[in-house]
Amino acid sequence: MPHYNGEWLPTPSIASIEELLVNKRWKRSSQVLAILSVGAALLGTAFYCFVILPNERFRDHDWMSNASEDELRQNCHCALLVPVGNTHDASIALIRIGNADSVPLLIRALWYIEPRGTDKSMWECTRSHCVDALRSLTDEKHVTYAEWSQWWEAEGRHRDRETFFPHQDYTHVAQDVFGRSDSD
Fold it and tell me: Which residues of 139-171 are buried (b: 16+ CB within 10 A; e: fewer)?
């Protein structure tokens, strides 16, 4: 559309309008590509921080032996967030260092390691450590995901956070994944 700036400007030609539309499409495409790139970078960073790094830390004996209890607990919680995390070692560690935040994560982990199909033994070791951690932190005696989930919805989520702590009856079953003894 022509506008007045002291004198009338000529109406743009069809060719210049098409060129303008092409430039707008290219600009929009580059904006979409930039947004997708940022999204992929954020997703990759999250995958590294919540999947790869916690699993690598379980294999790093120096990190495990020098980390504080809070750092170890946080690492365990990250490992339990996704099914490909090191649920086995995280469950063992949480028997001794878990807290109220560990309980719903362990229950969710129990769901994805619950035996399915014909291979009932594949996750048996990990499942038993997960149940031991839940029993240690809650002093409850449930076994299956369904029992723990039902208990959590009915009672557990309403309990005082201070009641979730490692009970001495279960800490003897925890293998020391930290490279420390109880006296350290």
Answer: eeebeebeebbebbeeebeeeeeeebebeeebe
